[in-house]
Amino acid sequence: MFFETAxxxxxxxxxxxxxxxxxxxxSWALNSxxxxxxxxxxxxxxxxxxTLDRRGHGRSERPSTGYDLDTSADxxxxxxxxxxxxxxxxxGHSIGGAEVARYLSRHxxxxxxxxxxxxxxxxxxxxxxDNPEGVPEAVLQDTLDDFRTDRPQWFxxxxxxxxxxxxxxxxxxxxxxxxxxxxMSASPWATAQLLAxxxxxxxxxxxxxxxxxxxxxxxxxxxxxxxxxxxxxxxxLIPGADYREYPTAGHGLFxxxxxxxxxxxxxxxxx
Length: 271
Known about the structure:
Helix content: 40-55%
Shape: globular
Order of helices and strands: EEEHEHEHEHHHHEHEHH
Distance between the termini: 31 Å
CATH superfamily: Alpha/Beta hydrolase fold, catalytic domain
Number of helices: 10
Number of domains: 1
Structural class: alpha/beta
CATH class: Alpha Beta
Strand order of the largest sheet: 1-2-4-3-5-6-7-8
Radius of gyration: 17 Å
Strand content: 15-25%
Number of strands: 8
Largest sheet: 8 strands, mixed
CATH architecture: 3-Layer(aba) Sandwich
CATH topology: Rossmann fold
């Protein structure tokens, strides 16, 4: 299914089941297919599950503009308006979590019942004087240079760390290949622009203003978004947030720790 955003971009979304709505926001470079192990679980338990392919990803159109978190947040708002969803649980993974945070800052909580940040790249990635836990700008530039040199090789190098296979998380080569094919299907322009926008966006003030229940889930072995820089700091900023850290999980815990994540999300949604 498709709808049009304010600038005329046609975006793809999927809508399954009936009941209280959960909107799953995919990770950077991935699309709706990443939630393969969550959507059936929640529809079987009486929930409506909606997920969006952001612009430049999956089956959505690839315009030349709009690859910043403000536009991503506005696109998410347009989807909720299009379906007139209310009392929504938002679940965002990685940069999808940053998009959820930006949505709350720009559009408020009127339609939102609760939010879950899974492996989210929050609260602020860039190293600055008032953010000494951040990452130097040179790291971002090196990554962008790698994209321009050999993007497939960059994603291939990340695959094992993504799933923390060194900690004996069972992930088949076929599943790794499935993940890589999703990443490579995304627009190169979109992935580079969105990564830069995420790196430079400061969410700290917005997180402090969240008043709906919030769950923060992070992998203790997340190499790409270390919990000391992201997950733990995010939970400290959100009033009353429930923080859960999986010691053996990497960034791709929606696959490797699907049973634990699904159970924790279900408990949160019912609470």
